[in-house]
Amino acid sequence: MDPISALLVALAALTVVYVIGWVMAVMGTTGDKGPPTPVTPGAPTPLSIGVGAVTNFFDTLGIGSFATTTALFRFFKMVPDRIIPGTLNAGHTLPTVVQAFFYISVIPVDVVTLISMIAAAVAGAWLGAGVVAGWSKRNVQFGMGFALLAAAIFFTMRNLGLFPAGSTAIGVSGVLLVVAVAGLLGALMSLGIGLYAPCMILVSLLGMSETTAFPIMMGSCAFLMPVGSLKFIGKRAYSLKVALGLAIGGIPGVIIAAKIVKSLNLTTVRWLVIVVVVYTAITMLYSAFTEPPSVAEDVPPQS
Questions:
Q1: What are 264-291's pLDDT values in tens digits?
Q2: 23, 63, 45, 52: which is closest to 276 by C-alpha?
Q3: CB atoms inside a 10 Å sphere around CB 265
Q4: 105: Cβ–Cβ under 8 A, 6 or more apart, which residues?
């Protein structure tokens, strides 16, 4: 078996583990008594399915899904701020796995570079999710607010052509490989900034082709998101019904986008995303600064 095939087999196995872990966690909540909670089992709404389809459609095109989903969550008041990070990770995991299979299969990238950066992202996400899942509402608002502002800056740089010019190289070695591993901060996924823009900047700075960012980003996310998501799921720091909606709508959204990837003006779409993301970041930071302490310092229940 060649290394890429082995990588995809490992991803498939990890995905099965993730699904089983999620199902077992949900089954563990079915006997709970008392009022409904964010993880009370129930059918996802058409709105959450639609959000999953739209955000993962644009994620496949390189727009990203975390910032746009956060904006929609807050606009429609779908998810309390405290559990947005966990819902993003749990809901977008399966659509991201589908994207990873597509991009890793069709875009060439050096195997050692790919696997090394994926491993770094998984380690970062595991550590980051364990921290964020236990944060208070105010800390999540501050963290996501500043992370969204950073995402808006990255998107603006992308639209203005301010990313360093890449080359045709599909991998790095030696010191540059160490820099690549150190620079791939997968823990940012736990906050909701996403990985596309930081990954694009990193591969360009390393002198690699921009196209390699797609298999690296999607492969990293596909491996790190099940790992990080199980942390959030285990701590019940997410909305089950909304996460299910994202997953159900997201997979067909990815498949459709993969077939029409060249038919949209993505620069125009990115400018729209920038406006929405900045607005969302400002409102989240405003809430963090103005909410009463008794509300802002709400902390998640421990499993």
A1: 566 777 787 788 778 878 888 888 888 7
A2: 63
A3: 8
A4: 4, 8
pTM of structure = 0.78
Q: Which residues contact 15 (CB under 8 A, 6 or more apart)?
A: 94, 97, 222, 226
Count of CB atoms within 10 A of residue 271's CB? 14
Q: How far apart are CA 187 and CA 180, in angstroms?
A: 15
Instruction: Render pLDDT for 155-213 as a digit per residue (tens, 0 to 9).
Output: 788 778 776 666 778 888 888 888 877 766 555 556 656 676 677 777 877 888 878 88
Cα–Cα distance, 203 to 200 (Å, whole number):
6
